[in-house]
Amino acid sequence: MNILIIGCGKAGNILTQTLCKEGHDVTVMDIDSEVVTSVIDNFDVQAVEGNGLIVKNLLEAGVQKANVIIAMTESDETNIMCCMMSRKLGARHSIARVRNPMFAEQMVFMREELDISLMVNPEYQTANEIARMLRYPNALHVESFAGGRMELAELRVSTGGIMDGLTLSALPSKLKLRFLVCAVMRGEECLIPDGSFMLRANDRIYITAAHSDLSKFYKQFGDMKNRIKTVLIVGGGKISYYLVRQLLELGMQVTIIEQDMNRCEQLSDWFSKAEVICADGTDQNVLLEEGLANADACITLTGIDEENIILSLYAKKIGVDKIVTKINRTSLLPISDSVGLENVISPKNTTAALILQYIRGKENSESSDNITSLYRLADAKLEAIEFIIRKNARYIGIPLKELRTNRGSLIAGIIRNNKRIIPSGDDCLKLNDSVIVVTTSQKVSCLDDVFQA
Q1: How many structural domains is the chain composed of?
Q2: How confident is the model at residue 274 (pLDDT cuts 50, 70, 90)?
């Protein structure tokens, strides 16, 4: 596909790199000449220096031939205008990054009336991800499929725990539950294991299961944490705005520490049931006075990655059970894991995953299945993709044991008529099934890509 990216900051860089790997023809436009030079030096793409609001620049970048235009500048209004102008000039689809909460309640109107195909709000999506982490405190990450009917959870194998040293084939009889270990992150390597694979301490495993079985799994897993009731949030930005609303609806007690007085007044007006403290969240005395040591969870959402890491490490040291750390710079993600920060979220990666889901869906819109969800896991080394089978295809009705999957891919779950199926070799795929695929390949855009020809 021909893809034009307008604005190439951190999220734009992630998108550019991934789309290039997937074989798309990518053109990047940015007003900063140094950014343009860097893009040309690092990626096999075309790059144009210019403003996406100027017709001449858009035409020079080939907007009239673009299958998708992605507006990722720092200005929401600029992104919206770029999409509108690009569609008038011939682009088939448009995606705008829109971050201002003011626009949140009129997203549907703007998509329909302004002809914008997809509007992505990184802060809103990140808040949703954090809320899921707090609903399931035992998991490092939890992603939901088919409207929450099946879940994929990331956990760590503890030293000397029930799974340390067990082969995967021995797990079902040991735990007597229906679940599937569909991927394992060991060090820097991401693996799709078979039954003979032996788990080791500190492996990060990804399992699919129904919610009820997931809860039972935690209990037998031996690391059951109590339900989260009190949450301390450091940083009162856009993510906090979306997150606090969800946590209050879940009945949690929320304290927000923010040092900007005007922002504190806004938060107090919006959330009368939350406690808002105007103070420096990096001050140890402030943290202790506001009850960090007794909090069930600590969420670090300041605008500085290093602050978030240090605050999270301090919260871990004094015994906070659940800690979520926001990190924007992808280079810091492996470091955060190496120092023991397990629940790390990246708004840039969340944004990239949503946009990739849309692009792959459009790329194969005529195929027998549609992508409805796409999550990037294990430091972007693993993808979990949900397809819905809409048309008859060669793999329908054939037992999975007779279908050979490509290396690095696995059918991890099937939802059929609200029934959750952890697949075995005797199961078949049928029309209208929701099918969850876990893969280490970043080129799976339809179920045909999963099975060998």
Answers
A1: 4
A2: very high
